Every structure is written in structure tokens, then in C-alpha cells.
């Protein structure tokens, strides 16, 4: 059963600001590097092309890390052994009220310390009192039938049933502390509770439990909801995002965004000469999407993806070449804490890259880095700098490197330096005079690993907590 952490712990451990931190401990600085004009240490233009890194691998680029059967076994082990994951199909037919209240209060607890609005003003106690009242915990019945639903659009998962953006410091408006994650069209959920104002639902999904806007979920039968996710044939999105074609007849499936790794049923038996909402199907893919009817119930309707959309009939093979290619499809995207800004954060980035190859990982860095179902090398802080350097030298394409609150994905090595792609707010390194330089980046970037500094005297590699290898 998923352990849903208190809000103040989530802030410290879960999504992570994906900033390389500035601790006081010291072990010895990395050497200052000559800086290019753009100011990002040890990064050249040629290194910003996926083909460059794939080409360096030679024949190893196509090496299959795991086949479909091995991936299926690993995914099953993840659900079985990792407490951050949940098999919603295994939930009982009725949910005890005590358990539902426990899920909600574990997440929706008042924050410790001041919080601020977008205008920089401190939020008053009355604001948090209203949030707590809207939880409607007194309305949770002693027992309730387990209800299932499908998400009909990309939608935010929130700490509280409220869309107010809340921040730790005045002016620091990139990291909304009430933003937890996001769900995508076709994601299956259990609907556990509704807010007092009726505008929000508390839902349980495979990787996260939080509040979502009511109009983003359509409630259906258990068999329909769980059957949708397993239907074949299907298409898997392999681009960063694709969109359905414009649809003047069904606006709910018009220009609908589908993110990397989203899987949708393909209507392969659709008559080849039958229009889809007025458009001929020959030049696209006829898929089936969930929509929410006026009474909130689930309906499945046809929609069109353009023939040019980057999709595949199956998840991509798990190879170094595909890991690099998929990661680079997000290069330059704005950093989005908790999937805000219609983007993703560091852990969301790596999970969606791997999802396009059929591999499931936990949502948060704190869970990814310690999952008992993944091949993990742990660091306890007793290692010398030289021992850590030796482990870093063994890194391979696709390995995930964790420091507190952040994850980086390895793409290769050049001139004895390890290079990673990651979604970060910024990095630190030593300038020509040995001073610490903080470089804001706010996006998916390529950087070296060894020159990065967590503090003036602390190389980032001395902050590594674990390395996870999807093998």
C-alpha cells in the first residue's frame, strides 16, 4: 500500500527543486574549467545533438538492455515491492473511511512556516482554514464502494483542493508548493473523495494520490476503466508531445495533448472510408479517448492523430540509442516543478523517457533513488572522493544519478568526463578564480558531471546518494 508522506516531508524529499544544493560540508573542489561564451561549463555545441552521443557508441548503440519479458517482470516487481507504487486493481470493492481519511490527511496537512501568494504577500491563517474545511473529512463515509475513473486531459495533482499557487518565499514563483504532479489522458484512478465545494476529487493512481479537478475525471465501471489501459492494438507516444487534430464536433478531443509514453487504444477495425467527425481517416490514426459526459460518467469516443505524429505500435526497444534520442526530445523545455508549466521536473523527465520504452519507475526522486525493485548502488557518505570518482567512471548510458532532490541521466563520456541530460533550475561550478558560480538554467540541459559543484568546497559527486541502473 502506498505510503503518502506528510506535506512538509514532500517538500523536502519528493519532487525536489532539481537544483544542485549548497551544503556546508567539504571534501575538495573540482578543478575550475575554461568557460565557453554561453557560460555553461564544459558544454560544446556538438554535444547538444543526440546523434553525436549515439555515434560515439558504435555498435553498442543498439544493445538491448532488457527485452519485453524482462521489462514486464521488472514492472511487476516494482508494484509488488515498492511502497510508493499501487495496483489500483487490487484495492477492495469497498474502501474503509479510515483509510480514505488517512490518505487525505497524510498529504493535505498544513505547511510549516510562512507561505506566500503570487503577489508576494504572506497567506493568512484564514486561507489555510478554508483549505482544511474544503477537505470535507467529516463527509467521508464509514465505507464506500470503490469507484474507478479515467483521466480525460492532462491535469495537475494538488496538495489541497485548490488551484492557488503558493510559494515558500516572496518572488520565488517558479516552484508552487501545492503542485504535486500530473496525470494524463487515459490514466486510471480510483475516486476516493470529493471536496466540500464539489470542484475537486481526491484520486488514487498507480504512482500518486492527490487532488485533481473534477472535470478532468470521468467515472466508469471497474471493467471499462481497467480494460482501457490494457487494450490492444494501441499506440504509444514517442514524441515529447503530440496533439489530436482539431475537431469542431467534439471539442473535448480536439487538439488534446498526449505526452511521451502515453498509450491509447487504436481502432484498427475502423471502416477505412468512414469519416471521423467529418474528417477522412486515411491520413491519420483513429484512436479511442475517454471523455466526461454532462453527469460525470465515462464515454469512449474516436479521435484522430495526424499521420505525422510520432507514435509506435509498441514501446520502443530499451537501448542506449533510444534512451539518448528520447531524452533529447525534451532538450530546452522549460523546467516545470511537479509537471507545472505544461512541462515536467527532473524525476518526471526521466520517468517519461523510460515510460516510452515500457519501463515504469516511481514518480519522485526520493522513491526512485531507493526503490527495492531497481538495480541500485547506494552511497552512505563514508566513501572517499576517489572511491566516488571510480564509481562515476563506470557509469553507462541511461544510468540515473541521484543527489538530494535531483536526478540526472547519463548520456556518455568524453575526454574522461561524464555527461548527463537532466531537467534542472541551475548548476554550480568553480570560475576561473576558484569562486563558486551559480548558473540558472531552468530547463532540460546537457552538462558534465565531474566539474559540477554543490558548494564552494563540495563537488556534486560527493553528494551522490545512489545510482540506479535500468538493466
Automatic annotation (TrEMBL):
<feature type="signal peptide">
    <location>
        <begin position="1"/>
        <end position="26"/>
    </location>
</feature>
<dbReference type="InterPro" id="IPR027017">
    <property type="entry name" value="P60_peptidase_YkfC"/>
</dbReference>
<protein>
    <submittedName>
        <fullName>SH3 domain-containing protein</fullName>
    </submittedName>
</protein>
<keyword id="KW-0732">Signal</keyword>
<comment type="similarity">
    <text>Belongs to the peptidase C40 family.</text>
</comment>
<dbReference type="InterPro" id="IPR039439">
    <property type="entry name" value="SH3b1_dom"/>
</dbReference>
<dbReference type="InterPro" id="IPR000064">
    <property type="entry name" value="NLP_P60_dom"/>
</dbReference>
<keyword id="KW-0788">Thiol protease</keyword>
<feature type="domain" description="NlpC/P60">
    <location>
        <begin position="317"/>
        <end position="471"/>
    </location>
</feature>
<keyword id="KW-0378">Hydrolase</keyword>
<dbReference type="Pfam" id="PF12913">
    <property type="entry name" value="SH3_6"/>
</dbReference>
<keyword id="KW-0645">Protease</keyword>
<dbReference type="Pfam" id="PF00877">
    <property type="entry name" value="NLPC_P60"/>
</dbReference>
<dbReference type="InterPro" id="IPR038765">
    <property type="entry name" value="Papain-like_cys_pep_sf"/>
</dbReference>
Amino acid at each position: 500500500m502506498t505510503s503518502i508522506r506528510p506535506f512538509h516531508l514532500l517538500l523536502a524529499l519528493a519532487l525536489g527543486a532539481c537544483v544542485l544544493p549548497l551544503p556546508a560540508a567539504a571534501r575538495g573542489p573540482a578543478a575550475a574549467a575554461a568557460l565557453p561564451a554561453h557560460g555553461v561549463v564544459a558544454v560544446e555545441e556538438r554535444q547538444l545533438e543526440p546523434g553525436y552521443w549515439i555515434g560515439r557508441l558504435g555498435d553498442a548503440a543498439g544493445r538491448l538492455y532488457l527485452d519485453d519479458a524482462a521489462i514486464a517482470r521488472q514492472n511487476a516487481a516494482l508494484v509488488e515491492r515498492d511502497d510508493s507504487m499501487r495496483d489500483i486493481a487490487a484495492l477492495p470493492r469497498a474502501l474503509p473511511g479510515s483509510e480514505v481519511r488517512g490518505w487525505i490527511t497524510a498529504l493535505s496537512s498544513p505547511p510549516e512556516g510562512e507561505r506566500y501568494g503570487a503577489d508576494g504577500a504572506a497567506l493568512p491563517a484564514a486561507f489555510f482554514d478554508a483549505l482544511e474545511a474544503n477537505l470535507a473529512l467529516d463527509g467521508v463515509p464509514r465505507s464506500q464502494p470503490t469507484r474507478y475513473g479515467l483521466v480525460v486531459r492532462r491535469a495537475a495533482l494538488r496538495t489541497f483542493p485548490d488551484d492557488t499557487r503558493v510559494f515558500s518565499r516572496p518572488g520565488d514563483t517558479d516552484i508552487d508548493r501545492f503542485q504535486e504532479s500530473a496525470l494524463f489522458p487515459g490514466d486510471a484512478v480510483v475516486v476516493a473523495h470529493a471536496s466540500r465545494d464539489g470542484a475537486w476529487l481526491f484520486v488514487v493512481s498507480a504512482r500518486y494520490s492527490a487532488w485533481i479537478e473534477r472535470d478532468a475525471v470521468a467515472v466508469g465501471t471497474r471493467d471499462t476503466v481497467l480494460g482501457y489501459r490494457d487494450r490492444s492494438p494501441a499506440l504509444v507516444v514517442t514524441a515529447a508531445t503530440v496533439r489530436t487534430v482539431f475537431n469542431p464536433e467534439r471539442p473535448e478531443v480536439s487538439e488534446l495533448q498526449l505526452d511521451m509514453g502515453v498509450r491509447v487504444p487504436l481502432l484498427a477495425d475502423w471502416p477505412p472510408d468512414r469519416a471521423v467527425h467529418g474528417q477522412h481517416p486515411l491520413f491519420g490514426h483513429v484512436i479511442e479517448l475517454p471523455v466526461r459526459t454532462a453527469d460525470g460518467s465515462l464515454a469512449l469516443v474516436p479521435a484522430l492523430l495526424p499521420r505525422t505524429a510520432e507514435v509506435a505500435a509498441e514501446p520502443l526497444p530499451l537501448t542506449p540509442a533510444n534512451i539518448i534520442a528520447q531524452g533529447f526530445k525534451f532538450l530546452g523545455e522549460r523546467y516545470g516543478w511537479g509537471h507545472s508549466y505544461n512541462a515536467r521536473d527532473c524525476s518526471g523527465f526521466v520517468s517519461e523517457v523510460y515510460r516510452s520504452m515500457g519501463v515504469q519507475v516511481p514518480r519522485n526522486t526520493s522513491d526512485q533513488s531507493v526503490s527495492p525493485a531497481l538495480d541500485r548502488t547506494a552511497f552512505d557518505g563514508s566513501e572517499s572522493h576517489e572511491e566516488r570518482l571510480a564509481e562515476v567512471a563506470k557509469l553507462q548510458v541511461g544510468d540515473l544519478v541521484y543527489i538530494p532532490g535531483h536526478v540526472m541521466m547519463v548520456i556518455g563520456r568524453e575526454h574522461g568526463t561524464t555527461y548527463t541530460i537532466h531537467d534542472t533550475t541551475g548548476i554550480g561550478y568553480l570560475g576561473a578564480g576558484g569562486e563558486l558560480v551559480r548558473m540558472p538554467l531552468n530547463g532540460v540541459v546537457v552538462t558534465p558531471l565531474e566539474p559540477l559543484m554543490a558548494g564552494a568546497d563540495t563537488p556534486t559527486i560527493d553528494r551522490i546518494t545512489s545510482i540506479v541502473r535500468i538493466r
